[in-house]
Write a structure and sequence with these properties.
Blueprint lengths: L2 H31 L6 H28 L7 H13 L1 H27 L8 H15 L5 E3 L12 H11 L8 E6 L6 H14 L5 E6 L3 H15 L9 H14 L4 E6 L19 E7 L10 E3 L5 H11 L6 H13 L4 H14 L3 H18 L16 H11 L6 H13 L7 E2 H10 L21 H13 L5 E3 L9 E3 L2 H9 L3 H20 L2 E5 L2 E4 L3 H21 L7 E4 L7 E3 H11 L3 H14 L5 H20 L3 H19 L9 H14 L4 H17 L7 H17 L3 H18 L4 H5 L2 H14 L3 H19 L4 H16 L3 H15 L7 H17 L3 H10 L13 H12 L4 H18 L2 H18 L2 H17 L2 E4 L15 E4 L13 H7 L2 E2 L2 E2 H14 L3 H17 L5 H22 L2 H17 L14 H18 L1
Parallel strand pairs: 1-3, 2-5, 2-6, 3-4, 4-5, 14-15
Antiparallel strand pairs: 7-9, 8-9, 10-11, 12-13, 16-17
């Protein structure tokens, strides 16, 4: 993209951002105006969607604000800005895609609400009863006090500030909830004041619950609210993602009559996100915010914390030092606190320094001036201090420097403590667990143990938590860390937190070489914790077994690691931490583990960047590096799959396969079969593109490789992998004969020839899933289906346990098998159990929610419970977020429309219309035609004149996809065609006697098949619609053109033949009703006999790509038509 174009694209994105905000506000206004018409669950859903839409809109606004120049900027400045925007293209596109998805979800919600707006409405008495019951239940519990921070033991009361907080929070005239902001620069004691206020109101029993939330970033705010949701969710309501948990907290507090207090601490960067999006409403709530930013005044009344008074500051200093408080010392203390700017943190640290060094008060200022010059000359200023500095503004940095020297870094022990502090500074500031250091020490077998670990070991070289606590207590006393939790309630490890400014200062004081060396150690620390949780099942399936809480904690540190990795990337080398593993990770680096972990937690861009770096960095002259380079190449392709960049994945995998063929030769005999795995990765990438030709190429390539590999027990695993990939490609490309043949070979090889138990040894989870899913979709042997699904469930339970994500996937397939076997009661029970269980599974992927709700909907649909099925299908968009769900909005809309067709054709029309619009945006021709036919059916069932005209219009538009333009006198409104037009059909041409003559170009286009429909199938429906409007001549023209095309067509399935003949009968019957032509009925019957006898099915039916209830229902309808034709 050239720079000028980039500016244009960015400007368009700005308009899109503004539109997002307008839509969000407008829907919010409408929701408020008609709130009494919504049911409670509908309010929840709308609140979640609006919250997410607003959040993504602000994120987009933030990105654009970061890169766009001002309107009056010069051309050179705009060009430079444009070049910067290119680097942000991927981020901006990702946010825009998420906004588009949420727009679609909102459309679905509005459609659903419109259909069920007359549902149950809770009256005032009912609402009051519910609220009273909630209050009654709450009364059985003590006050909830969830405050994660701790007061300093030498806190100095500041009664004027505390009284002002209390007065403002209890102002009856203030808006709800009552909110107060404590504003001041860092180190002024805002957090300690908020902690003391919480302790005071707790002792007075003013609030029923008090929650403390770290609001330093959007992510930490979300994490804090998620923890609050866990505390408030006493009914174990399923909250499947962050948006749902935040919405739950806001709703719970807004509707609860109990008094509550929320403290949002360290909301310093108000430009990064709007905290008001996370503050609940409600008349019983109080909100206290600490912030450095004066911009937060728009949120509520602000108390400016300008520093302690002189008396308070002197009192604080004397609490720290053990000296006589006489007149001389009082004067010296007054000079010191004035020089330190009355900053509580600076005073606290200075007192710790003087106390440890036994430095007299009267000597402190001279010592400070010398140290201040040294520190300020060597340490760059951070953003808070980038204005022309006064001495007062430098006191915080100076004090940290003074505390740092107390570690005695020039002594051997002090140097080790400095190393530990330097390592702490690489972590996210919250929840740095002792476990990370202990695991590294316990698992390191390199013989090159870090010397600083001797600080934490006993005389027997065993890990000592007591010694770890001793070092951390020293850091806490010097204010180098902000908290040290030694309670060890949930785990046996203590946890420390680091102030972000201290973290930045520690990092900045290191030179680049030392920083890079310490970063390498930090990399090994994180990788050790990941290594003990890592598992590998196949070349495509691996992950980390850990609790959700542990995953969240490590994710914070991994994300920060990625930022530092980008800074040092050009000068880093891979950090090998293990070798001798089985499988693809026979040799592994710390960076590979972090890449896999980032990919599993949704940071797929980081996964891709690290894998790409490893591929470029590893030298194939080193045998160990060859294995690492190979694994990195596979991970690079997997990350592209995760980002749905299938064409890039195909190109990359092919490039790497050719590379390894050149390096290893065609006859790769390496222990882990690298060339075979590289080939498998390539064909997997090939079969996962949208192209049908790529799937056919996959079949050909796999067949060629199968011909080369001996069919013996030693090569059975390779053959099975290739056969299953062939099976997958044949199924997706609708090659029924190939699919059935390959499926038989697969089952024969592991069943008849080598025994069924052998598949348990060689099949991976992907193999089990693919084979089982395809068998359920195509097999008519119900006994075999039950045996296979039973074996799959038995295998996955033995390998992964009952609550693992992979187990739930195979349980879902078992439910589908029960549905095929028509054991509906068992299927429904199992589906509902999976829906309940999936929320507790570690590492649950968004796609799983979609699959299980779709399966539940299919079960209900089969039982004829269409409205329940509709609600199950419609639950999918409400319980998933982001672009990585396997069940996307297109499938959801299709399923919802199919169910709605049974009880509300107008609702079905709304769903199919939205799906049709989305299909047209992405130019998916097969999907467009499918949507056209669904819309036609829905509008015909609606039966109104307007609906019938709409049915005709959508058919005419659908023929444009085949390259045909329909012209007749009643339709002459010009508009842009969906596709380039290859021929025109003029329905106004007179027709007297049917003729077999037809334009060759028109015939070719009418015989084109898109999805499951030929062009002539649309044309005969157009004739039927025109006949209903008594436009006889155009109707006859369309009917005979369609019929002649049908007669000349070949390779048509029984489904197509019977459907067309049925429509020909319907057309003839309607023609007889209007004009009484008996001879035409006789002629049509004779023609139908000839067609049924003459046309042979020589191509398999291609309509089973989803193997769902829709196809089986259509075949059942066709059976009825066949019976009518035969009669």
């Amino acid at each position: 993209m050239d720079p000028v174009s980039a500016i244009g694209v960015a400007a368009a994105a700005v308009q899109f951002t503004e539109l997002t905000f307008k839509i969000t506000k407008r829907i919010a206004v409408f929701a408020t105006l008609s709130f009494h018409k919504f049911k409670p669950d509908e309010v929840t859903t709308l609140d979640d969607c609006l919250s997410s839409l607003g959040s993504y809109g602000r994120e987009l606004d933030e990105l654009l604000g970061r890169y766009l120049p001002s309107s009056n900027a010069s051309i050179p400045v705009k060009l430079v800005a444009a070049l910067k925007t290119i680097a942000a293209d991927i981020k901006i596109k990702s946010v825009v895609d998420r906004i588009k998805e949420l727009h679609a979800v909102l459309d679905i919600f509005i459609i659903t609400w419109a259909a069920f707006k007359d549902g149950v409405i809770l009256d005032a008495q009912c609402t009051a009863d519910i609220r009273n019951e909630n209050d009654r239940q709450r009364s059985h519990h003590d006050t909830v006090y969830r405050v994660s921070r701790h007061e300093v033991r030498h806190f100095v009361e500041r009664p004027l500030v505390l009284d002002e907080i209390d007065r403002l929070l209890h102002d009856t005239d203030a808006r709800q909830p009552r909110t107060v902001i404590l504003q001041g620069m860092g180190g002024q004691g805002k957090t300690q004041l908020a902690l003391r206020y919480c302790a005071n109101v707790r002792s007075r029993n003013i609030h029923d619950c008090i929650f403390w939330i770290d609001a330093s970033t959007r992510a930490s705010t979300i994490r804090g609210l998620e923890e609050v949701s866990e505390e408030l969710n006493d009914s174990d309501q399923a909250l499947l993602d962050s948006d749902a948990r935040i919405a739950f907290v806001r709703r719970k507090l807004a509707t609860n009559s109990s008094k509550w207090l929320l403290v949002f601490d360290n909301y310093d960067d108000s430009a990064a996100f709007d905290l008001r999006d996370y503050i609940p409403s409600g008349i019983s709530g109080h909100v206290l915010i600490t912030s450095r930013s004066t911009d937060t005044e728009r949120i509520g009344p602000m108390i400016h914390i300008s520093g302690m008074s002189e008396d308070e500051a002197i009192q604080l200093l004397f609490k720290q030092i053990d000296v006589l408080h006489d007149g001389t010392n009082h004067v010296a203390a007054a000079e010191i606190v004035k020089r330190l700017g009355y900053l509580p943190l600076a005073i606290d640290q200075a007192g710790a320094y003087m106390n440890a060094e036994c430095l007299p008060l009267t000597n402190f200022l001279d010592h400070y001036e010398q140290s201040a010059r040294e520190v300020l000359e060597s340490v760059p200023s951070l953003w808070e201090y980038n204005e022309p500095a006064t001495k007062d503004a430098k006191t915080v940095y100076t004090t940290w420097s003074l505390s740092f020297t107390l570690l005695k870094p020039n002594t051997p022990t002090g140097a080790l403590k400095v190393t530990v502090l330097s390592l702490l500074a690489f972590f996210d500031e919250h929840e740095i667990s002792e476990e990370i250091f202990e695991v590294y020490y316990s698992t390191d077998v390199s013989g090159r143990q870090l010397e600083c670990m001797t600080l934490f070991t006993d005389e027997k070289q065993q890990w000592s938590g007591t010694k770890f606590d001793s070092v951390m207590r020293e850091f806490l006393q010097l204010s180098l860390i902000t908290s040290h939790d030694m309670k060890r309630k949930e785990t046996k490890y203590s946890v420390v937190s680091l102030h972000p400014l201290v973290r930045d200062w520690v990092n900045l004081r290191q030179n680049i070489e030392a920083h890079r060396a310490n970063f390498t150690i930090f990399t090994r620390l994180l990788a050790a914790s990941l290594s003990v949780k890592f598992w590998e099942d196949s070349h495509l399936d691996h992950g980390f077994r850990m609790s959700s809480a542990a995953r969240r904690r490590l994710e914070r540190h991994a994300v920060l690691w990625m930022k530092t990795f980008k800074r040092h990337r050009p000068n880093l080398r891979p950090t090998v931490i293990s070798s001798g593993r089985d499988g693809r990770f026979a040799a592994i680096t710390a960076e590979q583990l972090l890449a896999c972990f980032l990919g599993e937690t949704g940071q797929v861009e980081g996964h891709y960047e690290i894998s790409q770096w490893l591929w470029e960095t590893c030298n194939t002259s080193d045998g160990q590096m060859v294995q690492i380079k190979f694994s990195a190449g596979c991970e690079e392709v997997l990350s592209l799959w995760s980002m749905r960049r299938s064409e890039e994945a195909k190109a990359k995998s092919q490039e790497k396969y050719q590379y390894w063929k050149a390096v290893l030769g065609d006859d790769d005999c390496s222990a882990n079969n690298m060339l075979h795995i590289s080939f498998l990765t390539f064909v997997c990438s090939l079969s996962r593109t949208p192209s049908m030709q790529d799937k056919r190429d996959t079949i050909a390539l796999c067949q060629r490789e199968l011909d080369r590999i001996p069919n013996d027990i030693q090569n059975l695993p390779k053959r099975q992998q290739l056969l299953i990939e062939t099976l997958y490609a044949a199924d997706r490309s609708k090659q029924k004969a190939v699919r059935d043949s390959i499926l038989k070979i697969i089952l024969d090889e592991v069943g008849v020839r080598w025994g069924k138990d052998y598949r348990k040894e060689i099949w991976s989870i992907d193999n089990w899933f693919d084979v089982t899913q395809i068998c359920i979709g195509v097999s008519d042997d119900l006994d075999f289906m039950e045996q296979l699904t039973d074996a799959a469930v038995e295998w996955v339970l033995d390998k992964y346990g009952p609550d693992h994500i992979e187990t739930l996937y195979l349980f879902n397939l078992r439910t589908k098998a029960l549905l095929r076997m028509h054991r509906l009661t068992e299927a429904e029970a199992m589906a509902r159990n999976i829906v309940k269980t999936v929320t507790g599974a570690w590492g649950a992927r968004p796609s799983l929610y979609g699959h299980v709700y779709k399966t539940l909907g299919d079960v209900l649909y089969t039982q004829g419970r269409y409205e329940e099925a509709y609600k199950a299908y419609n639950s999918v968009p409400l319980d998933r977020r982001g672009p990585n769900s396997g069940i996307d909005n297109m499938t959801i809309l299709s399923n919802c429309g199919r169910a709605a067709m049974k009880f509300n054709p107008a609702l079905a029309d709304a769903h199919f219309t939205l799906r049709y619009q989305l299909s047209k945006r992405i130019d998916d021709w097969d999907d467009i035609i499918r949507d056209v036919m669904c819309l036609y059916d829905a509008r015909v069932r609606m039966g109104t004149e307007k609906a019938k005209r709409g049915a005709l219009d959508v058919l005419i538009e659908g023929l444009e996809v085949y390259g045909l333009k329909i012209v007749y006198r009643l339709r002459n409104t010009p508009r842009k065609s969906l596709r380039e037009i290859g021929a025109t059909i003029n329905l106004d041409d007179p027709i007297s006697v049917p003729s077999s003559a037809i334009d060759e170009c028109v015939l070719k286009l009418l015989l084109t098949r898109l999805g499951r429909y030929f062009g002539f199938e649309l044309l005969i429906r157009i004739g039927m619609s025109l006949l209903e409007t008594k436009s006889v001549n155009p109707a006859e023209q369309a009917y005979w053109l369609a019929r002649i095309s049908f007669e000349k067509g070949t390779n048509m399935t029984e489904h197509v033949i019977t459907n067309f003949i049925q429509y020909a009968f319907d057309y003839t019957a309607r023609h007889f009703e209007l004009y009484g032509d008996k001879q035409r009925i006789h002629d049509t019957l004779e023609w139908a006999k000839l067609m049924i006898c003459g046309k042979q099915e020589d191509e398999e039916d291609g309509g089973d790509e989803e193997h769902d209830g829709e196809d089986r229902e259509k075949h059942a309808e066709n059976d009825g038509r066949n019976a009518m034709v035969a009669s």
